[in-house]
Hints:
It is a single chain. By secondary structure, this protein is an alpha/beta fold. The protein has 2 domains: about 50-170 and about 340-405, Response regulator (Rossmann fold, 3-Layer(aba) Sandwich), CATH 3.40.50; about 170-305 and about 425-440, Rossmann fold. It has helices at about 15-35, 65-85, 105-115, 130-140, 170-185, 195-200, 205-210, 230-240, 250-265, 280-290, 295, 315-320, 340-360, 365-375, 390-395; strands at about 50-60, 90-100, 120-125, 145-150, 165, 190-195, 215-225, 245-250, 270-275, 300-305, 385, 400-405, 420-425, 435-440. The strands form 3 sheets. A 7-stranded mixed β-sheet has the order 7-6-8-9-10-13-14, with helices on both faces. Strands 2-1-3-4-5 form a 5-stranded parallel β-sheet. Helix 3 (about 105-115) runs parallel beside helix 4 (about 130-140), helix 5 packs parallel to helix 7 and helix 13 (about 340-360) crosses helix 14. It is globular.
Amino acid sequence: MDRISTTWPGVTAASRMRRRVTLLIALLAIITATVGLPGTKALAAPKFHGSLTIAAVAPFTGADAVLGPKYQTACLAASQAINLSGGILGKQVNCKVVDTRGDPADAVPAVRQMYATTSNLALVIGCTSDEASTVVPVLDAHKTVSFCMTGESEFDAIHFPYFFRLVPPDAADSVAMVKIAKNKGYKNIALAFGNDAGSQTFVQPALNAIKANGMTVVSNQTLDINATTFNTEAQAIVASHPDAIMMEALGAAGVAILQEVYQLNNNKMIPVIGTSAMIDPVFFSGITTAIGTQNFIKSFDADNGTVNFSGPAYPLYKKLVLAQAGKVKGVPSFPGLLTANGTVHLYDGINLAALAMVMSHSTVGSKYRADILKIAKGGPGATVVSTFAAGVRALKAGKTIQYFGVGGKYQFDKFQTAYGLFEDDQFNADGTTFSAGSLGLCTLVSCK
């Protein structure tokens, strides 16, 4: 049987070859756009009809500037996966930085400017203890859903309908720090907390928990986070002969105080228990340069929310966070963000909100807010999902869902604060962390 000719009149072999090469190049371009990104199956790039904005409202300059890049990374990582899955209701997700400078007075005009210049604002993340007290009422008045990383006690008993807190209050953090000290047999404790609002919220709860556990505060130092030297405070700490120092001082202040304590203590580290915010690659890089990696890591612990390394959400999260290297300024080591409190929980928060938008068929806060609580709670017969893509598939199949993220499951109280398990984290030599043991569920008064 003769073969059917596929040669068209006037089309040469050379032109056919050029067409094949052109087609191959186009195909390779599509593959390149998606290769290496976890969970990617489709070759064709999604076609969007419109866009949405997620704003990271946090300090990107000022003394607490280390916080902003953690939250920006969470936004870029989550939105990358969401967009590869077709976006939220077919709309592309974009991230926007709103710099509060860590100052409540500067934060309000920055947020008002955000509203004046941002179209299709669907969600706010960030909102730290530095500025939450002034920013949250503004966000709530605009009916903007927000996931804030604030531990201020005023949010323990005031209900803002559009405010969600994915981490326990700072009082619970303080209780967890004291539990670490108790586990290690420390009796005499020095406190060294920054004078910023975000750090000072730990002090009174720490004092209460230390007293309740039969320990003694031998020194209580308030650190000017804009200072460059802390000789007076360091001398007072060393002279009090503490078993350990409990502290939060972000950025250069934390490095400076510990370096001076180290030098005044005959180049020996006094054990340090830090807050979860001190699990930070900028702090790690600075302090290990100042006193040496091994000197630091053998004497430092920090309380942190449990991260499910073995959970189904972690592999995707890890790849997405590492994929942001070079896209976010101020992060010396992206592996150091893999257990950073803000990055973990805000990544989960974005997925919760995105799935709630899909579930409610709306990107308007007043319409999707309630579905965040439903997806977090789950219920009998709910399908557990750990990615946005899996959640969308289940919702389209008519199933109810419960989100199980990198930080686990989120169960909110009536003030929309999520309490969870704590762990004692320690640094590896490369700036990543590992769990040295569970601290249990820590509330405002105890860990169980």
